[in-house]
Amino acid sequence: MNLKIIKLLIFTIALFTEVKAQEIVWNSPSKDALDSMPLSGSLGAGANIWVQDGAIWLYLAHNGAYDENGKLLKLGCVKLIPENINLDSNGFIQSLDPQTGTITISKGNFSMSIWFSNETLIIETANSFKHKFEVAYGIWRDNQKFDINDSGFVWYHKNKEYAKDVVLMAEKQGIPENSVCDVTTNRVFGGALAVKEGLHKVTKSDVKWQLWEGYLWTGVTMPRSKHLIVVSLIASMNSNENTWQKKAKTFFNDRFRESAKKSELAKWNEFWKRSYININSDAVPTNDGYLVSQNYNLFRYMLACNRNGEFPLLFNGGIFTTDVAYDRITGMTYSFKKREGQEFPDFRRWWGTHFMSQNQRWMGWPTIAAGDVDMLKPTLEFYRKRELTARARAKTNNAEGVVYPEPMDVWGLCSVKPLPNGFCGSKHLTYHFSVMLEIGWMALQARNTMGLDITEHLEWIKGTVMFYDSFYRNETKKRTGSELDKDGMLNIYPSNALELLSGATNPIEVVCGLKRVTEGLLEIDEIKGSDREQLIEIKKHLPEIPIGERSGVKVVKEAKSFEGIHNKWEPIEMYSFWPYRYFGITQPETLKLARNTWDNIPKNRIRCINEDYSWMANVVNVSALARPEESKRRVIYKLANNKMPQARFPAFFGPGHDWIPDHNWGGSGMTGLQEMLIAPEVKESNGKIYLFPSWPKDWDVEFKLHTAENTIVECIYKNGEIKKLKVFPEIRKKDVIVCN
Questions:
Q1: Are 446 and 376 in contact (CB under 8 A)?
Q2: Ranges for the DUF5703 domain (predicted)?
């Protein structure tokens, strides 16, 4: 090893200093499932865990547990009752250590440690005297098989026994059978519970637990001072349930289990070294800034359950949904009405929208600055694996490339009022395709920031541009006889502008997205030959970003023109600030234009810039305007969760528009906090890095984040001054501009 490499390793080790995520400690049991604590595994596995009425409760979950109807379901409930141990009395402790991915429950001499090895849940207990455990599994659905054995039991659901005709669904939307992405028909999900010393006297009965009624299987362990219970969670295509119990029992071997624990600790250690944000670390735990970064870290921990997962987490609850009593939700900013099915842990609001693209983007954006490649991949893979479906949809509409509708189900089909051409029948969504451009831009930014190899994604990303060019050339020719407008530019009409406008021409987020994605693709050497020539030609004809006047000042407009207005939540002009960065702090000469635009949003849409809950992106938007005090106020509401907390765990945001824990609330908040700290200029090389573009001087912070051109920035800011700044590679330090 040469001296240069040794120096690089030393510098890298020094750069990757360890900062601990805050431990959450409860000193009393919980009221119900809403007051549960999340335990993250990986590959999509996780559990809600809480202690109630002297028992330890677990809602088991896997992000691959999609049934034949395309709905994500829980895997059931496990309840553990320790004999002669009172968990409701003084001295009770339940804690989550995100640093190690472990939940600990203790009372006196009794202790329980719960952790995941990938998709397998390990429960280890110790006590000063021998005692039994009553071990019970409950489920509120009746379409599940159950097998009992000497070690415990196995339960499973096979979609093919209740199969839905996915091919017929697709054909009704103009998608032929050979383009269908059937990820459900042969899917099997469930679990295997194994007790090391065996489970005895297993009986079945009806049960009413929490808010639901269902079926219960109960057994008893042998009396021991130490117990080991292992639960393997499974959700995959063509899985063989007969192998699940054997997988669980491999953890009975002490050496194997210790090796698995060591591996998990190493994974969590690597995870927390990738990036961090810690605000006011020396302050009391009720300090607003302290809470903001605490909950940022906790929500990132929750997202980590899906490291290298098969599907993206759902925006409306992820895998940590619970049954929620109607009277438990109070004072939220969006009307909370009792809904059918709410008594079941599977329930989530906006279930029928499935993967609503504009919401789902918040599962991807915060992973880039955090350096979480393994948590971004499920979002990108969702689009890549449904490319054939998207390409067939484009062909049905006489267009080239690919087109993904705004509301998509797990198969990549339109999930809301689908039309025979595969588009959505709701007027405010029919021509809303712009999020596919944004996900393409996300992939390009991940390549630029984390060095992600996106070679296998280039076809569908290029296809999004090809669709807009070919589809709107055809539409314009139908009306005018010419493919382009009178100025020789692409005329994007009829279009939606997010959910705000219908009958729009050249909506802002579409124009910005097309420009950025086309430019980004042309920077990639793998784009060659006719592909490159085609993109160069398309770029020549892309329309200008719509600019106009309001209240006598120059502003960015929502579109060149439009015919109808719908959901007025959308500060759509801000897409030009972020994620596309045409205006705002990263282009200082445009800052006045950006601020004028924000300050002159039309009165009928003014509500959209006054709200910060759920998916609202206004922390991000204000950060692009370099307004530190407003960013501070908004990010406190977004992440501190100390105004109207609805659940006991501080990163269970919501429900807001959607459900609890609201994942697009947490994701948009994380991204906003990152943008307050660091904002990169979009440039092929030597782009400026704007440090503290919207950071309040009275907040101390230590952070490590990833930014453009595969750069890592580590900084300590205290008492209004930078005390330490490390940039890797060091050559990028010259590009840093300190704004604070």
A1: yes
A2: 25-145, 147-277
Looking at the chain, the domain(s) classified CATH 2.70.98.50 span 19-274
| pTM, to two decimals | 0.95
Instruction: Give the residue among 543, 545, 541 at the shortest CA–CA distance from 593.
Output: 545
Mean pLDDT of the chain: 94
* CA–CA dist 222, 229 (Å, integer): 12
State how far the Cα of 550 lies from the Cα of 166, in Å rounded to an integer.
Answer: 49
User: What's the confidence (pLDDT) of residue 127?
Assistant: 96
Q: Are 181 and 194 contacting, i.e. CB atoms less than 8 angstroms apart?
A: no
Question: What is the residue type of 67?
Answer: D
pLDDT of residue 343: 82
Sign of CA dihedral 663, 664, 669, 675: positive
**DSSP secondary structure of 416-429:** SSB-TTSSBSSTTT
Position 326 scores a pLDDT of 73
**CA–CA dist 387, 436 (Å, integer):** 11
How far apart CA 59 and CA 122 sit, in angstroms, is 14
In sequence order, the β-bridge partners of residue 26 are 94
Of 622, 625, 644, 624, whose CA–CA distance to 633 is shortest? 622
State the Cα–Cα distance between residues 615 and 724, nearest whole angstrom.
34
Q: Quick one: which H or E segment has residue 460?
A: helix 458-480
Whether the upstream peptide bond of residue 696 has omega within 30° of 0, thus cis, is no
Residues of the chain with pLDDT under 50: 1-17
Contact 671, 303 (CB under 8 A): no
DSSP string, 518-552: HHHHHT-TT--HHHHHHHHHHHHTPPPPPEEEETT
Calculate the CA 42 to chain-centre distance: 14
At residue 651, the 3 state secondary structure works out as coil
Give me the DSSP letters along 166-219.
HHHHHHTTT--GGG----STTEEEEEEEEETT--EEEEEEEEEETTEEEEEEEE
Contact between 436 and 402 (Cβ < 8 Å) = yes
Q: Are 508 and 575 in contact (CB under 8 A)?
A: yes
Q: Identify the CA nearest to 512 among candidates 587, 604, 605.
A: 587
CA atoms within 13 A on the CB side of 607: 7
Amino acid in position 729: P
d(CA 64, CA 190): 10
CA distance 615 to 606: 17
Q: How many CA atoms lie within 13 A of 628 on its CB side?
A: 14
Give residue 29's pLDDT: 96
Regarding the domain delimited by 19-274, which CATH topology (the fold level of the hierarchy) does it fall under?
A: Beta-galactosidase; Chain A, domain 5 (2.70.98)
- Amino acid 4: pLDDT: 33
Do 404 and 438 form a contact (C-beta atoms < 8 A)?
no
- Structure tokens given for 20: 């601990």
